[in-house]
Design goal:
With 132 residues, this protein is mainly alpha-helical. It has helices at 12-24, 30-39, 47-64, 67-73, 78-97, 103-113, 117-131. It has seven helices and no strands.
């Protein structure tokens, strides 16, 4: 997926930043490096595989922060940004359990965390915009 300037929504620099952050927390970066290589390979993954890779990258960004998380937060109001920061780990753990990412289950999870309907909807749409 690309933004209006023609650049991909998730860039190689975003993945490199995640790799650095995971490495600093003594995590295993092999999966991230393989995801980056697959996402930006010449022949590239199919659309479904690319979406799965972007989902894994977003879950990692919710756990570790970085430029990819900043891209998500830039689409939100200050209050919604604060809510995502507050519940980032819980949201990441929930997203990790989903087989199919859709607006409604994400919204319901956010509302269970205590967010109002409107904010939950905006955050769910922003999350899905990054991975579709």
């Amino acid at each position: 997926m690309t933004i209006s300037t023609g650049e991909p929504l998730i860039t190689r620099a975003d993945i490199d930043d995640l790799v650095t952050r995971v490495r600093l927390s003594a995590g295993d970066t092999r999966e991230l490096e393989a995801a980056g290589a697959a996402l930006f390979a010449a022949d590239g993954p199919g659309p479904a595989d690319a979406q799965l890779i972007r989902q894994r990258l977003l879950v990692t960004a919710l756990h570790h922060g970085g430029t990819l998380l900043a891209k998500l937060l830039s689409r939100l109001s200050p209050r919604e940004t604060a809510m995502v920061r507050r519940y980032a780990h819980r949201l990441a753990n929930f997203l990790d359990t989903l087989e199919t990412w859709a607006t409604q289950p994400i919204m319901l999870a956010l509302m269970r965390f205590g967010l109002p309907y409107g904010e939950a909807e905006t955050i769910a749409v922003a999350v899905l915009t990054l991975v579709w």
